[in-house]
Design brief:
Elements: H1 3-6, E1 10-14, H2 17-29, E2 35-39, E3 45-47, E4 50-52, H3 54-63, H4 81-88, H5 99-113, H6 118-128, E5 134-137, E6 144-149, E7 156-159, H7 160-166, E8 175-179, H8 188-195, E9 201-204, H9 209-218, H10 222-228, E10 233-236, E11 239-240, E12 243-244, H11 249-255, H12 262-268, E13 275-279, E14 293-296, H13 303-320
Parallel strand pairs: 1-2, 1-9, 2-5, 9-10, 10-13, 13-14
Antiparallel strand pairs: 3-4, 6-7, 6-8, 11-12
Helix pairs in contact: 2-3, 2-13
Length: 322
């Protein structure tokens, strides 16, 4: 890659754990102040009176080296005194909050109640944790992901965390909605990043398309801005060999009537996608796509894997740029 490209800004869209892996790879290989990461906030919810932002926190902990490699979520070296005490009192313990993680939620809730925006609080948190990249919520306005289950399942609408954590993604779903999206405003720095004439690439991290990326796309103006963007928009497949690396992506695709393969994800982004990165195992599945495809090893098991994939994505974007 040329020195000129190396200093150009990169924008990444990410959900939680899977997206954070590639976000970390990008962060480690780029000049840190050139990277902006926009996080899904459709997972956000109020629990025990606290404002919780799971995807933002996963990115904060991952980029600062405070993530928990054993659990795959939460803070490294976590303790659980609060949860044990809460359980002893008969409290609600289905959503686990570690002692260190609890501090994040308490401070966020205090500052939101005092009138600060989510983006301002997140920016302060990332600076205090030593993160040089910009980290933005998709919007300061609330957007909440909800999933509908047909009558032969639990029936009716479920809030995301009820589905994802309390019910362990077990209910069958047939559609999703993003409550509040129609009235939400994209963060102005998000739209400015997309419109930056010097932008090197937009990277859609390998997050669940339906519950991690679609809430971002549902905010008015975002999808149109991606279509109009001069820089290449590159997505990395979250599907490898017809399976999701983690989470309910494959299960959801099946229940929504979609083929469980890498090509289906590319089609999901087809109106704005310029380039697709699929796993080498999926060469046959993506052979007939009508957009350029780069095959790579997309399974990120180590820190080196994250960096290698990040370099592959950016090199492919540089070649795709006209």
């Amino acid at each position: 890659m040329s020195d000129t490209n190396a200093n150009r800004p990169v924008l990444a869209l990410s959900g939680g754990v899977g997206g954070a892996k590639l976000a970390l790879g990008l962060y480690r290989i780029l000049p840190p102040d050139t990277l902006t990461i926009v996080a899904n906030t459709g997972d956000d919810f109020a629990h025990l009176g606290l404002a919780i932002s799971p995807d933002l926190d996963t990115l904060l902990y991952t980029l600062s080296g405070n993530d928990n490699p054993e659990l795959g979520w939460g803070r490294r070296g976590e303790t659980w005194t609060f949860m044990a005490a809460l359980e002893a009192l008969g409290g609600d313990t289905w959503f686990r909050l570690g002692d260190g993680d609890l501090a994040t939620h308490i401070e966020r809730t205090r500052r939101l109640s005092a009138g600060e925006t989510l983006s301002s609080i997140t920016d302060d948190f990332r600076r205090r944790l030593g993160i040089a990249a910009r980290l933005l919520p998709m919007s300061d306005d609330p957007v909440r992901t909800r999933l509908h289950t047909p009558a032969n399942s639990t029936g009716g609408w479920l809030d995301f965390q009820d589905y994802f954590v309390r019910l362990r993604c077990e209910p069958v779903i047939d559609r999703l909605e993003f409550a509040g999206a129609a009235d939400a405003r994209p963060h102005p720095e998000f739209l400015a990043a997309i419109a930056d004439p010097n932008l090197r690439a937009i990277v859609i991290c390998p997050s669940n398309p339906f519950i991690s990326i679609d809430p971002i796309l549902a905010v008015p103006g975002v999808r149109a801005a991606l279509r109009a963007c001069a820089a290449p928009v590159v997505a990395v497949s979250p599907i490898i060999g017809g399976k999701a690396v983690k989470g309910p992506t494959a299960k959801m695709m099946h229940e929504l009537g979609l083929p469980v393969d890498a090509a289906a994800v590319a089609h999901h982004y087809r109106d704005f996608l310029d380039l697709y990165i699929a796993d080498e195992e999926d060469a046959a599945a993506v052979a007939d796509l009508d957009i350029p495809v780069v095959l790579a090893r997309t399974l990120m098991q180590s820190l080196a894997d994250r960096e290698v994939l990040a370099r592959t994505v950016l090199a492919a974007a540089d070649r795709a740029r006209k």
